[in-house]
Amino acid sequence: MVFFIGPLGFVVLSTLGFVEIGYHTLAPLATVLFYVAVVWGLYMMAHSLGEAAGIHLPLGKPLMPMKQS
User: Fold this and answer.
1) Residue 19, SS3?
2) Which of 21, 37, 41, 48 sits in a 20 to 30 Å window from 3, CA-based?
């Protein structure tokens, strides 16, 4: 999923370029894609900072281990 940001950036910049040259119907799509890119970038930044600091969120893992029965 790390390599998703490259194609997403291309699509965001392309739609923004089309809006600038006069295709104003693409403005809502460009806005939504821009916000998706910002949120994705912030997530990736938080993830990499967590990796560097050794902090991991327990997503997909049990918070309390259960006894084997």
Assistant:
1) helix
2) 21
pTM for this structure?
A: 0.61
Q: Quick one: the chain helix, strand, coil %, rounded to 5? A: 70, 0, 30
| Interatomic CA distance for residues 64 and 33, integer angstroms | 38
The kind and range of the H/E element at 28 are helix 27-53
Residue type for 54, please?
G
Over residues 10-23, the pLDDT tens digits come to: 888 888 888 889 98
